[in-house]
Specification:
Blueprint lengths: L8 H13 L22 H12 L3 H14 L6 H14 L3 H13 L7 H18 L7 H19 L10 H7 L1 H17 L3 H14 L4 H13 L5 H13 L5 H16 L4 H15 L14 H9 L4 H7 L1 H11 L3 E14 L5 E6 L6 H10 L5 E5 L13 E12 L4 E9 L29
Parallel strand pairs: 3-5
Antiparallel strand pairs: 1-2, 1-4, 2-3, 4-5
Helix pairs in contact: 1-6, 2-3, 3-4, 4-5, 4-6, 5-6, 6-7, 6-9, 7-9, 9-10, 9-11, 10-11, 11-12, 12-13, 12-14, 13-14, 15-17, 16-17
Amino acid sequence: MNRISKRGWAGLVFALLLGATGVPARARSPQAQTPQAAAPAYTLAEYNAYQAAAADKDPTQRVADLDDFVTKFPNSALMPYVYNTYVHAYNDLKNYPKVIEYADREVALGPDKVNAQSRFTALYLRTLAFNYSFSEKDANASDEATQELAAAKAGLAVLDEVPKPANQTDDQWAENKKAPTALFNYTAGIASAALKDYASAVTFYQAALAATPNDAVTYFHLGVAYLQTAPPQSLDGFWALARSVALKGQGQDQVKAYLRGQIQNYQQTGCDSLVDDQLNEIITLAGTTNNRPAKYTIPSAADLTAARNDTANFIPWLKEGGDHGKLMWLATCGLVFPDVAVEVMTVTPGDGGNATLLVYRPGASDPDAAQKEMDAATDPNMTVNIVGQPEVSRLQKGDGVRFTGTLSGYTPTPFMLTWDQAKVNADDIPAEKAAPGAKRPGHKAAAAAPPSR
């Protein structure tokens, strides 16, 4: 994603300054003093040379004129105005390294020579230039980020010194200051992240969002910073990324794909469709509120492992549904279970040696209770899709068998699990030719073995 969104930050700052001064910042210049005033600190030749340079409408020529001025008058008292004009000329030329250089020169002259309004403008344009030009691949990226972090903090400080325009109410002035407040905080976050101080980056991004709460780009960077803190603040990171997508910012498809990958890595669930379900859910919820509700959570890989190992609650939690059912389904969907013991209710042969078994599996772990549950069962609770095993057609209702298959489907009400790519244990399939009228023993269902991939 772009480092800053195209939301008119640059235009807003000049509107802010115009309201504060009554004239554009670039037009401000040293004024000729009255005869009664003390002698100016610059000569008339300096003044005229500066005015001619500042008035040139061609920024390239303006820079050349300023270079000539500095050559002729290297120690001029007009340097604050010269540097200010350099900043604007290079900004017009989109020469961002030079904007940064001359903004730093202007601010370095100090508050005695450069008023708050001019320092604010210089720092604002410097910060925009940093956003447009900075790359973490730069050889001097660390130094550049360190300098911009200081500049952004200075911008926040000097913003409070800029006088409120006489024609604005306090509320109007506070509203006008939100855009530069957001930019300085946002860029301080970018610089902090480049310096790998992700905790500070989170704080700055949050401050930026307090001023402009619906900026998708800032939410994206906030989400990334949350995920890179130590330890990662994963849930808050997911929410910020989802908020970015919900706000339909630039590059939302890439952010959505990145968020999906982060959720998959965080959970390591076996079913891609469940990741998609959670992705869509969090994006929908994040579209309704800025902050993650305290009760909203996404189970981690450790949570799923614990549920997966809790074999006693495999059926009970899935039958229960709700949070327990969701957790167990996330933990077990897509996994291969070996030797699942069930009782056959119906057998439907298919083509190519395939077949579908409707079976019942008790939820009770105690053998006696499980048998009573199975004896009382009238409807199946599992569909088992057998592949390439024509001999299962010899199974009959009431047979107890064990199968190995991939858990692929789940509905809590009515409760039903679906298994694919399944095979029945060959020892549980009767011989091809049974004696006429012979009674074949059934197989009691045993507790399910722990799932394996």
